[in-house]
Structure formats: structure tokens, C-alpha cells
Specification:
Blueprint (H helix, E strand, L loop, with lengths): L3 E2 L2 H14 L5 H23 L12 E6 L4 E6 L6 H9 L5 H8 L23 E9 L6 E6 L4 E7 L5 E8 L14 H12 L6 E10 L7 E9 L16 H10 L7 E10 L3 E9 L15 E5 L2 E7 L11 E6 L15 H24 L1 H20 L6 H4 L4 E4 L5 E3 H7 L6 E6 L3 H5 L4 H6 L4 E4 L2 H10 L1 E2 L2 E5 L9 H13 L1 H11 L5 E4 L8 E6 L4 H9 L9 E6 L4 H12 L1 H19 L6 H12 L1
Parallel strand pairs: 2-8, 12-14, 17-18, 17-20, 21-23
Antiparallel strand pairs: 1-6, 2-3, 3-7, 4-5, 4-7, 5-6, 8-9, 10-11, 11-14, 12-13, 15-16, 15-18, 19-20, 22-23
Helix pairs in contact: 2-5, 7-8, 8-13, 17-18, 18-19
The structure holds adenosine-5'-triphosphate.
The site of adenosine-5'-triphosphate has 23 residues, from helix 2, helix 3 and helix 4.
Family: Belongs to the heat shock protein 90 family.
Pfam families: HATPase_c_3, HSP90
Subcellular location: Cytoplasm
């Protein structure tokens, strides 16, 4: 028997592929099982047009058998089989895909599709085997043939004995090396796990003979081992089932089975789209934050299946960052796979699916907000931060899509509210959407800056997370209403007050100038406050950067020392102001002392650090004696 050489380019390709296309050796089994499943599919098509063949679904299966002693792994199918010519052309020339030819020759009906397109999958067997033997008998023929290759030099083909139609592939599994443990591909439980992982939803049963330990009959402690043929794959994927056939429990079980999380999902989204792009998806919003969610280690992404076969564990392109908490899977028949079947080309279909999924998730979240408020708030507590990041990043390009999902605590409602709810409650004379930033709701409530706005009966949103103000700056306006910090220079309150403040400002011009001199460049200005009622003093800001933003920016590793333009505001109706006036007229030293004290108090109220706490306590003592 003469050995035939692989076609020249094939040889190179083979080496290249073995070493580089596949990142994980275990996928060889997925490839061989996909081929076997394709072969059974082909039988199905043939039966549609050929009366001599009957397609009896029960007679079709794939079997995987490992033999540790012989170091052999056998994959058998009862599919269409290959003639001598088929073996020659399909396995003798790499990158010549029989499946692709079959696909173009036969219009595919009935939603069945054949995954093989490139004609390299088979060769992945050489990643784990020294030698591969394929014995095959094509349907409607009497002869069987054996194709054999050690992968390097070429292959032989000879007549063989085989009773039934179909193909048997025997891999002689490589010996272990220092880097690689090949024994695992002879271990039934490891093989079972690989099948479960990649081929669980292959339409035909994948059988294995597994050793089970059972109690010996009649004994309650003596065990015995017995071999049992088991079907490993679940075959009908849950996502292909009709939604009304499925119960909540089914979805929860799938979530657990797939190890999407240890919690129960808060909500599931089952999508079946049959339009410009066809796909099925089951998505979940987890109940709890995954432990690594807010770390760099967290990887977003959905499992991606191509026609029931797992292609990618975490396809990041399917989820925008702001929905990175979503878990689940997508299955589509329309994906154009690249050669390794692992990475997709920048596929138009994939983009369409991703876009579709994005809008589905959004609309489901809006439904949750509308219909199951408590659940939504639970969701928001876990992942609201991620939505706010979504608003802020990419120069606000997602703000329109996300702003309706935002919630903040309301000063008047005493609960979380949406921007839409806030705006719908705004009085006619209210120009702005007010917000206040601070460490906690309790601290914000006590901020002197809150006094006047609250007194006017205006609702204030509390920003307690560092991202809040940055996100809202990006939103800028909601339903044509601008956002305004209660600490910002102009609060847009009534005009009578404006002119009163203006004249007071004039009256105390010299006093403020003297105070500004004491404080030097610690503040940009000293002025009359429009927002204080009972408190003597507060800090306000002019310009874009607020004090809370300054705190966050300063905490960043490579901060550029960005500071808020701080303004010391005084309550001219407070008794302390009278003391200030007196000191200004009579005692410069006292004015210095009072000014420093008031400034430091304002810092403390804002939760800002005192530059010199000892100096501050000394000043306190001075006014006591
Ligand atoms: N078990 C099998 N039964 C029948 N034909 C087979 C079997 N395995 C492989 N073939 C034939 O050999 C061809 C080459 O297989 P190979 O896995 O290399 O490529 P493919 O399945 O066409 O594409 P892919 O690279 O996507 O796997 C197949 O297209 C098919 O025609």
C-alpha cells in the first residue's frame, strides 16, 4: 500500500493549525462530534429526497468510547459515511470542506443547518493523537474504507470491514509530556465534561459507557461497579423551546447548570428573533453582584453558540459595558465563523444581534421599573453604578439610552426616584433639577446649602456615589431641565432676593475683601449667601467642578490637582455676622481669627480635611478665654 502525501499546502496548514488555530486542545472533541452530527444531518437530508432511505431518528447517535489500555479514543457515528473518494477529498485535502459543498448543493430546509464550513476541524484530532484512523461506509454502498494518518507525512486508504453505515474515528492518544497531560482524554469523566461543555445541545444523542458504582443487590453497604450506556447531552436546548412550555424553575435551573452565578437570577429574558438576523437568547439579570464585578478581573460577555455548538465562552462584543452584569447565552445559525470557530470575524450578524440584545435589555429593565418597582430597586442597588458609568463613559454617547434607568434618593419623597418622576413633580416656578452631593443621605440632609432650597419646598436628589455628579454633568439636561447643585453659585431662586443680596454685597464690600485677604487663595471669593437660613457659613462653588468632584479627582492616582473654585458664603442674618462686622471695625486680629474659624468650619461641614487641625483647635481655645 502506498502512502499518499497530503497536498503540499495541506501539510503546512496542518502544522500551522495544530500549533496555532486552537487555543485549547480539548476542542478536538467538539470538532469531531460536530462532524458526526453534520453527517447525521446529511443523512436526514438525503432521506428527504431518496425513498430508499428512511430516517429513523432513534437509530442515529454518536458514541464516544475511551480505552485506557490501548490509549485509544473512538468516536462513532451512524451518519452518511464517506466513500473512498470522499475520504480522499475530504480528509486528504485540508481546507476542502465537504460540508460547504453539500450546503451549496442542497438548499437547506427545515431550519437545519450544517456547521462545517472550513474543512480543518477534523485535523484538530492531531493535537491529541499520534495517529488517526477513520473507517467509514457511505450510505447506499457496500464497501467500507479505512483512512489512516499519523498527521505528518500523509495518509493511506485501504478497503475495510464495516457492517453499518457511518464513520468510526479512532485516535491513538499521545503519551503525556512534561507540559501536557494527554491521559485526560482517556478519562470518561473528563470526556463527559468536555461533551457537556461544548456539545450539550447537539441534536442527536452522544452516548458513553460509564462506570457507575451502585449498592450490591440485597446489601446496604457493599458496592459494585456496573457499566451503563448513558446519553450525555441534553439535546433540546431550553432556548429553542417555546416560552410558554417553560417554567420559572426551568430558567432558574438553567442558570445554575450553566454556573452563571450562585444566586438566583432576579429576572430572565428569553428572546427568539426570526427576522433580518435569526437568534435565540436567554439572558439573566443576577440578583447579587458577582464578587469580582467591580474589579478589573471581571470579564463581561455571553456564551455564544452557533447552531447549538458552543463557539465562545464569553463573547464580549455581545454586551455593552453598561450591561456587563447580564449573564446568559446566544445561539444563532447566521454567524459567519472564522477558521478556528473560536473567534468571529467582525461579523455583521454579530453586530446586529448585539444591537438587538442591547435594546431588549433596556426595554426589559424599563418594564421591571414600571411593573416590579421593588425588584428594580434591588437591581439598581447592585448595578446602578454600572449604568451611571455607562452614562459617563464614551463621551456620553449612551446617555439617551440610559438616563431613564437612573434613580436617586429624593429629599421630599424619602425614597429612590427616577428623573422622569422628579420632572413630573416640578413646580412651574422651579427652573432646575436640584441635587446635593455628600457621603450619605444623612450628611446631605444636614448640609447648610440645603436649607433654602428645601425651605422653598423644592425636591433635591441626593448624590452619594462618586460617579453621580460626573454622570449628571454628562446628562446636562433632562426633559429640557438643567441640573443644578445646591452648592453652585447661582441657584435660580427668586429675583427679589437677588437684588437684596446685591445691595448687601455692596454694603459689606470692604469686610469681604478683608476676609478674602486673610484666606488668601484658599477661596476665590467671600460673599453673601442666598442659601443659608440658620447656619452662619458654608462653602459654595463657582464653575464646573464641585467640591465632591474635587474630592474624587484628588483621590485619583494621577490627579492633576484639579480644584473647585470655592466661595465662602456668609449668612448676613446670623448673629455671628454681627460679630464679624464689629471685629472688622475694631480689631483686625479678631477678624483674622473669626475668618479662619468660619472657613475651617465650612471645610468640616463639607467633609474636607483641615489643613492644620492643631491651629484650628488653638483658635477655638482662643475664643474661649
Ligand atoms: N464523521 C464524518 N462523517 C462523514 N463525513 C465526515 C465526517 N467527518 C468529516 N467528514 C467530512 O470531512 C470534511 C472535512 O471535515 P473537517 O472537520 O475537516 O471540515 P468541516 O467540518 O467541513 O469544516 P470545519 O473546519 O468547520 O470543521 C467534512 O466537511 C465532511 O464532509
Amino acid at each position: 500500500m502506498t502512502k499518499k502525501q497530503f497536498k503540499a499546502e495541506s501539510k503546512r496548514l496542518l502544522e500551522m493549525m495544530i500549533n496555532s488555530i486552537y487555543t485549547q486542545k480539548e476542542i478536538f472533541l467538539r470538532e469531531l462530534i460536530s462532524n458526526a452530527s453534520d453527517a447525521i444531518d446529511k443523512m436526514y437530508y438525503k432521506a428527504l429526497t431518496d425513498e430508499t432511505i428512511t430516517f429513523d431518528k432513534d437509530g442515529y447517535y454518536i458514541k464516544v468510547v475511551a480505552d485506557k489500555e490501548k490509549r485509544s479514543l473512538t468516536i462513532t457515528d451512524t451518519g452518511i459515511g464517506m466513500t473512498k473518494e470522499d475520504l480522499e477529498t475530504n480528509l486528504g485535502t485540508i481546507a476542502k470542506s465537504g460540508s460547504l459543498a453539500f450546503k451549496t448543493e442542497n438548499e437547506l430546509k427545515d431550519g437545519h443547518d450544517i456547521i462545517g464550513q472550513f474543512g480543518v476541524g477534523f485535523y484538530s484530532a492531531f493535537m491529541v493523537a499520534d495517529e488517526v484512523t477513520v473507517t467509514s461506509k457511505a450510505v447506499s454502498t457496500d464497501e467500507a474504507f479505512k483512512w489512516k494518518s499519523d498527521g505528518a507525512d500523509g495518509y493511506t486508504i485501504e478497503p475495510a470491514e464495516k457492517e453499518s453505515y457511518g464513520t468510526e474515528i479512532v485516535l491513538k492518544v499521545k503519551e503525556n509530556t512534561e507540559e501536557e497531560n494527554y491521559d485526560e482524554y482517556l478519562d470518561d469523566y473528563r470526556l463527559k465534561a468536555i461533551i457537556k461543555k461544548y456539545s450539550d445541545f447537539i441534536r442527536y444523542p452522544i452516548k458513553m459507557e460509564l462506570t457507575e458504582r451502585k449498592l450490591k443487590e440485597g446489601s446496604d453497604n457493599e458496592g459494585e461497579e456496573s457499566k451503563e450506556v448513558q446519553t450525555i447531552n441534553s439535546m433540546v436546548p431550553i432556548w429553542r423551546k417555546n416560552k410558554n412550555e417553560l417554567t420559572l424553575e426551568d430558567y432558574e435551573n438553567f442558570y445554575k447548570e450553566k454556573h452563571y452565578g450562585f444566586d438566583k437570577p432576579l429576572k430572565h429574558i428569553h428572546i427568539s428573533v426570526d427576522g433580518a438576523v435569526r437568534y435565540n437568547a436567554i439572558l439573566y439579570i443576577p440578583e447579587n453582584i458577582p464578587f469580582d464585578f467591580y474589579t478589573k478581573e471581571y470579564e463581561k460577555g455571553l456564551e455564544l453558540y452557533s447552531n447549538g455548538v458552543l463557539i465562545m465562552n464569553k463573547c464580549a462584543d455581545l454586551l455593552p459595558d453598561h450591561f456587563s452584569f447580564v449573564k446568559g447565552m446566544v445561539d444563532s445559525e447566521d454567524l459567519s465563523l472564522n477558521i478556528s470557530r473560536e473567534i468571529l470575524q467582525h461579523d455583521r450578524q454579530l453586530k446586529l444581534i448585539a444591537k438587538n440584545i442591547k435594546s431588549k435589555i433596556k426595554s426589559q429593565l424599563l418594564n421591571l421599573l414600571k411593573d416590579e418597582r421593588e425588584k428594580y430597586e434591588q437591581f439598581y442597588q447592585s448595578f446602578g453604578r454600572q449604568l451611571k458609568y455607562g452614562v459617563y463613559t464614551d463621551f456620553g454617547s449612551n446617555k439617551e439610552a440610559l438616563q431613564d434607568l437612573l434613580m436617586f434618593y429624593s429629599s421630599t419623597e424619602k425614597k429612590m426616584v427616577t428623573l422622569d418622576e422628579y420632572v413630573s413633580r416640578m413646580a412651574d416656578d422651579q427652573k432646575y433639577i436640584y441635587y446635593a452631593s455628600g457621603e450619605s443621605n444623612e450628611r446631605i440632609e444636614k448640609l447648610p446649602q440645603m436649607e433654602l432650597v428645601s425651605d422653598k419646598g423644592f425636591e433635591v436628589l441626593y448624590f452619594t456615589e462618586d460617579i453621580d455628579e460626573f454622570a449628571i454633568k454628562m446628562v446636562a439636561t433632562y426633559k429640557e431641565k438643567e441640573f443644578k447643585s445646591v452648592s453652585s453659585g447661582d441657584l435660580g431662586l427668586d429675583e427679589d432676593q437677588e437684588s437684596k443680596v446685591e445691595s448687601e454685597e455692596n454694603d459689606h464690600k470692604e469686610l469681604f475683601a478683608a476676609m478674602k485677604k486673610v484666606l488668601e487663595d484658599k477661596v476665590k471669593n467671600v460673599r453673601v449667601s442666598k442659601r443659608l437660613k440658620t447656619h452662619p457659613v458654608c462653602l459654595a462653588t463657582d464653575g464646573e467642578v464641585t467640591i465632591e468632584m474635587e474630592k474624587i479627582l484628588q483621590a485619583m492616582p494621577d490627579n492633576q490637582n484639579i480644584k473647585a473654585d470655592k466661595v465662602l458664603e456668609l449668612n448676613t442674618n446670623h448673629e455671628v455676622f454681627q460679630s464679624l462686622k464689629k471685629a472688622f471695625e475694631t480689631d483686625q486680629e479678631k477678624l483674622n481669627l473669626y475668618t479662619k474659624l468660619l472657613y475651617n468650619q465650612a471645610l468640616l461641614i463639607e467633609g474636607l480635611p483641615l489643613q492644620d487641625p492643631v491651629d484650628f483647635t488653638n483658635d477655638m481655645c482662643k475664643i474661649m478665654v
